[in-house]
Task: inverse folding
């Protein structure tokens, strides 16, 4: 196991991403220490709800074509798919803006006015980053990915702290995250704006048709997956209130630090390297899985053990309930940390239909666990039930991924 770990983490590509993401996550960690002393759990609950809605809506934004940017043999086709994804993102953002205007006009959502105002902009900015990050990975522009992450966290922290210190606590976190998304998108735009291809309807249509499986099944699969991921942020406030959601959001922001730092970067490199292999992907899958599972075990076991000491020290008073949330959710985040990097196998084999089936199962398990817990249990037992459901799901999910990786794939 350790030889696989050393081989993976010694690669230049990974180290570039690791160092850049490390600085980015350090800024985020320092930001949490400051923001937790300015904003209340209720404010973080509203932030969690906002991020969930943005993430859910953004799944539609690229029309399911964001992941296809990695696959074509010709670089020009990759740029064309990237640009088509941005066009779809703009259309969806305009639709969201119209929907928010209609909701604000028909219903009296005075307390959510800022929420509805910022939602279309956040959808547009965040939607730009997904296909752009895939494009950067394809051309191994890992410095761009690193700069984008650092800029996002720095701008978000700067705006949120500034508004909080000026007394604008009600909406400070929402303005901060939206400004961060804008900065995130601008880094990618400045890097690729010269590569924008002029539309060629015949060629663009042929590309959309070639990868239509991503639209038919990939878009729906990504949407269901996003819904499964965001359901806790949507259902917890309904059953337990926004204060409890705030503790959940803070626990997740702590636990996502190592995931963002290592697991996502491993996944990006796995997808880029795997897209160039025409034979079986079993070796690279096992190497990546061993690396992520081995390091993840060390990280999340340590977090589980030191949480009772670390959380009060980092966040101060008023966040005591977050300790138990961190310990319970660390089991789920470990599984996600270990397995998600190799989930790109579905894209590499263009097997979005089977991925959709798995995501539907995950979504149903999440909904059932949170519903049963919401009606019958306390929040802590609800999270335990939720974690147990994910444990069963990831066991079946991993077995299928290992089976899929043993097949040969054609270079597209």
Result:
């Amino acid at each position: 196991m350790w030889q696989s770990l050393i081989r993976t983490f010694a690669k230049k590509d990974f180290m570039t991403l690791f160092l850049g993401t490390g600085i980015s996550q350090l800024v985020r960690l320092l930001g949490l220490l400051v923001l937790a002393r300015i904003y209340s759990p209720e404010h973080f609950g509203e932030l969690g709800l906002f991020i969930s809605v943005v993430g859910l809506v953004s799944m539609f934004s690229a029309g399911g074509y964001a992941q296809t940017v990695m696959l074509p043999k010709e670089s020009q086709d990759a740029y064309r798919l990237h640009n088509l994804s941005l066009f779809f993102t703009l259309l969806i953002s305009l639709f969201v803006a119209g929907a928010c205007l209609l909701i604000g006009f028909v219903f009296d959502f005075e307390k959510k006015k800022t929420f509805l105002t910022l939602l279309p902009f956040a959808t547009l900015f965040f939607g730009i980053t997904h296909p752009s990050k895939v494009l950067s990975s394809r051309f191994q522009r890992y410095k761009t990915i690193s700069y984008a992450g650092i800029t996002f966290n720095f701008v978000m922290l700067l705006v949120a702290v500034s508004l909080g210190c000026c007394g604008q606590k009600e909406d400070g976190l929402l303005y901060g995250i939206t400004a961060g998304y804008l900065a995130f998108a601008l880094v990618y735009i400045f890097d690729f704006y010269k590569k924008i291809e002029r539309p060629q309807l015949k060629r663009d249509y042929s590309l959309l048709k070639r990868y239509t499986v991503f639209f038919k099944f990939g878009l729906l699969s990504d949407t269901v997956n996003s819904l499964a991921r965001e359901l806790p942020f949507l259902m917890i406030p309904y059953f337990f209130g926004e204060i409890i959601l705030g503790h959940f959001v803070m626990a997740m922001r702590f636990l996502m630090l190592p995931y963002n730092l290592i697991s996502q970067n491993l996944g990006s490199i796995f997808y880029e390297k795997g897209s160039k292999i025409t034979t079986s992907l079993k070796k690279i899958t096992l190497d990546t899985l061993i690396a992520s599972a081995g390091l993840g075990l060390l990280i999340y076991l340590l977090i589980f053990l030191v949480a009772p000491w670390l959380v009060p020290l980092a966040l101060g008073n008023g966040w005591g309930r977050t300790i138990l949330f961190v310990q319970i959710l660390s089991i789920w985040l470990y599984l996600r940390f270990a397995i998600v990097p190799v989930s790109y196998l579905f894209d590499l084999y263009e097997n979005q239909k089977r991925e959709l089936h798995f995501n539907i199962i995950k979504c149903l398990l999440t909904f059932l666990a949170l519903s049963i817990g919401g009606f019958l249990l306390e929040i802590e037992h609800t999270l335990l039930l939720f974690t147990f459901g994910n444990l069963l799901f990831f066991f079946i999910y991993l077995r299928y991924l290992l089976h899929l990786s043993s097949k040969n794939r054609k270079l597209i």
